[in-house]
Amino acid sequence: MLRTLSIVVSIGLADSVNASTIGPALFLAGGGHPRRSVLEFTLGVVAVFFLGGALLVAGPGRALLSLVPHPSQTARYIVETIAGVAMLVGAVVLWTRRRSLSRNAHEDRKRREAGGQAASSEEQAPNERERGQDGDEGGLDDGGRTQGRSSPALMDPDDGARTQGRSAPTVMRLAAGERTQRRRSPALMGAAIAAAELPTAFPYFAAIATIVSSRLGIGRELLLVAVYDVCFTLPLFGIIIVLRVAGDGATQKLARMRGEFEAHWPALAAGAALVAGVYITALGVTGLASGLSGRTGRVARRVRHVIAR
Question: Does the global pTM surpass 0.85?
Answer without folding.
Answer: no
